[in-house]
Inverse folding.
């Protein structure tokens, strides 16, 4: 069965995900120089700008892959009510998200197992440790 979108979330925008990168001293020095000279507010500003520029450069390729792999682009939230509705319909979900997939804190591991057939997330998955552990074999 194809991926089925859940109800849109009405909660506030989730916090950004933190990543760690290793840079050589020369690259880091050049970044600090550009920050010092006022081109960017701080290191993070430069790195975000560089990443956004690269993503813009490859925007068409990303859109083609999203369409081909039937990914939902953005934030997808699944509450217990969403999953109970799926269960009542006798269906299961094949969740495919490019962005953030969020499974509500009210979702039990048993409900997740009964309703989520597979889970593919390119980005971040927010769920309780118990739900993540229960779905571990279904996460691709």
């Amino acid at each position: 069965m194809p991926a089925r979108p859940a109800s849109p979330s009405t909660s506030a925008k989730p916090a950004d995900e933190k990543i760690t990168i290793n840079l050589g001293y020369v690259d880091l020095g050049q970044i600090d120089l550009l920050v010092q000279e006022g081109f960017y507010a701080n290191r993070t500003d430069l790195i975000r700008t560089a990443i956004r520029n690269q993503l813009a450069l490859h925007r068409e390729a990303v859109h083609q892959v999203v369409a081909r792999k039937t990914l939902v682009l953005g934030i997808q939230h699944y509450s217990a009510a969403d999953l109970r509705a799926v269960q009542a319909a006798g269906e299961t979900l094949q969740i495919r998200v490019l962005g953030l997939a969020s499974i509500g804190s009210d979702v039990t591991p048993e409900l997740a197992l009964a309703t989520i057939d597979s889970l593919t997330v390119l980005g971040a998955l927010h769920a309780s440790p118990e739900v993540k552990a229960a779905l571990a074999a279904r996460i691709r």
Q: What stands out?
A: The longest strand covers residues 93-103. The two ends are 17 Å apart (CA to CA).
